[in-house]
Amino acid sequence: MVVTRFAPSPTGYLHVGGLRTALFSYLWARRNNGKFLLRIEDTDLARNSQEAADAILEAFEWVGMENDGEILYQSRRFDLYKKYVAKLLDEGKAYYCYMSKEELDTLRETQMANKQKPMYDNRWRDSSETPPAGVEPVVRLKTPLEGDVVVDDGVKGKVTFSWTEIDDFIIARSDGTPTYNFVVAIDDALCGINHVIRGDDHLSNTPKQIAVYQALGFEVPRFFHVPMILNEEGKKLSKRDGAMDVMDYKRKGYLPQALLNFLIRLGWSNKDQEIFTFDEMLAMFDPNNINKSASAYNLEKLDWLNSHYIKNTPNETLANLLEGHGVAITGHDRREILLDMAKERSKTLMELASAIKAIIDEPLEYNEKDMEKSVTPETSAVLNDFIMVLSDGKERHLPSEYQEMIDAFVHDKGVKMPMLGKPLRLALFGVATGPNLADALAALGKETVIARIEKFLKQL
RNA sequence: GUCCCCAUCAUCUAGCGGCCAAGGAUGCCACCCUUUCACGGUGGUCACAGGGGUUCAAAUCCCCUUGGGGACGCCA
Question: Nearest nt to A294, CA vs C1'?
Fold first, then answer.
C-alpha cells in the first residue's frame, strides 16, 4: 500500500509550492488506494502557532483535499522521541556534545575562511573529557565516517553523497526538544510512509535522515524530490512576489480546480494535455515522471485556466460563489441570463462580479470619450423611438424576444446598428462597450431600461 | 567556499538515438465571426546555453565550460 504525507511546519499560511507537493502526494496515494497523511511539524515551539496550523488546514479544505486518519502534531509526541534519543545514547549511536553555540560559530567561520564546508568537528564523539559544568548538552547522532550514501530518488535518479560530507548533526537540543531531521525520519517510519514526495530543497538533508533510519533499523522510504517553483522572473519565490498564500487565490476569485490544474502542470505533464479534471489527475498522475528542473509560474496561464473553469461552472454554483464577492443575484431566469453573458468574459470571480455589477448597477456617469464618439445629432431621436417601441405593450422576457425587437427596430427605422447600439450601451452601462444588448435588455427588464435611457437623454 | 541538483520557444512543456529543417499550450500579432467589448475559429511569431566527444545517425548518451538553483542551523 502506498502511504504518503504532507508535513508543513506551521509558521505561516499554506504556500502554493507546498500545495503542489501536497497535491502530488495526495494524488499518488489516492491513485493507489493508499493513504495520504497530514503531519504538523511543530518541534520548534518558539516559531509555531496554532493559527498557522489552522490556516493551512483551511486551505486544504478549500481545495478539497482530505487527509486520512488523525492529523499528527509532533509537539505532542516529544515523549516518544525522547525514548529514541535515549535508545541511541544507550547503544552508543549518539552522544552528548557540550560545545557552546559561540564555539560552533567560531568553528564555522574558520572553516569557511579555509574554503571548507562548515561542519561539526566530532570533538565530543568519542571524548573521554569531563563535561564542563553548567552546560546543557545537545545530543548528536554518530553518522558514518566513510563510504557513500546513495539516495535512489524517484525524480532525480541515483544521487550519491560521501558520508564525509555529513556531520554528526544534532538530534536533540539542549532543552531536550528533538530536531527536524530526527523526528521526520521517525514519524515517517512509524506511520508507515513509504513514498516521500517533497521539495528538492530537502535532497541534501536526505543523507542525514537515512542515517537516522539506519541507526534505528527502519526501512528507508522511496523519495521523490520535486523541483522548486520559481517566480515569473525565474528567481526564487518570496513574499515579494505576492499571492504566495493559497487563500489569496480564493480571495482573488480563482476556482480551486483551476489552481490545482495550474499547479499540476508545473513540473509534470501528460503528453500535450492541459486541462485535467480531478478524476483525470487521479487516473494519470505518477511521480515517476515529474520533471527534474525547476519551473517558473506564469499567472497568465492560471488566468486562462480559471476562465475555462468559470465558463464550465453551472450558474447556480457561480451565483453562490459570487456572494462571497459582494454580488447577490435574484431570480432564476435573471441569474441565467446575467451569468451566461458575463461568464464568457471573466477571468476571475472578481471580474465576474464586477461584470455583473456593471450591468445591474445604474451608471453614475457616462464615459466622456465614448460620448464624443458615439453620440450623434440623431441619437436623441433614435433613443426616443426605441422607448416608444419598448412601450408598445408586448410582453418580452427572453433575450431572443428582445433580439427580435432590436432587429425589427433597426429594419423599420432604417438605422444602422451602431447608431442604436453605442448610445444605448452608454445609457445602460455608462460606456459604449459591454455585453450583448438583447441579453442586457432581458436581464434589466423594460422599466429599468426605459428609466436609464430617459436619464441619459436628459444629459444630452 | 564545499557538496548536491538542473539546463528545449518570453513562460509551462512534448521529446526518452533515426518518425524533429523540434510538436502542444499560455502570451503576443494578424485575419475571420460580430451591434461594441469579450468569447470562439484560423494563421503567424518564438527554443534544443556553448564547446568537445561517442555513433552511419544526437535535442536525446558521455565530458568540460557557462549559467541558474538548493544544502551546509540547538529552522523545517
Answer: B6
